[in-house]
Specification:
Order of helices and strands: HEEEE
Structural class: alpha+beta
Shape: rod-shaped
Number of helices: 1
Radius of gyration: 30 Å
Oligomer: single chain
Number of strands: 4
Helix content: 25-40%
Length: 135
């Protein structure tokens, strides 16, 4: 007859199982947080890209509406556009101002601002350029 001798070290005890489970929960929590943060950052970058494209589109519209001529000076003019359930407010101003170091009345400074709300915070993008009729 063979007698089997059982060792007290043969397997996991309750304490080891709890430590391993706790470690796994902490690691999974950290990975979930990182994934959430990454998705938020990706969405934020996408909305910033949309805002930049809207500002660029407004600049092109101003240029094309004036057929390459200098646009008239304007006070702030605003419009709204909704894309993917996000409302963007697009405002622009045209002023008679030359870039720094240039002394000329043949320039127009065009400032386009795009505002939107993201994660309960107001965001803003500003695009600034100069138009001239100098050949």
């Amino acid at each position: 007859m063979v007698k089997w001798k059982l060792s007290k070290k043969a397997g996991f005890g309750l304490v080891e199982a709890l430590v391993a489970t706790s470690f796994l929960v902490v690691v999974m929590g950290a990975l979930t947080y990182l994934m959430h943060y990454s998705l938020r950052a990706t969405r934020s970058a996408g909305l910033r890209t949309v805002a930049y494209n809207l500002a660029q589109e407004k600049l092109e519209t101003i240029y094309n509406d004036n057929r390459g001529q200098l646009p008239a000076e304007t006070n702030q003019t605003c419009s709204n556009k909704t894309l993917n359930d996000i409302q963007f407010k697009i405002c622009y101003t045209v002023t008679r101002q030359a870039p720094a170091g240039v002394d000329s009345e043949r320039y127009r400074k065009i400032k386009v601002k795009v505002n939107w709300q993201e994660y309960h915070k107001n965001r803003e993008l500003e695009l600034l350029t100069y138009f001239t009729d100098v050949d």
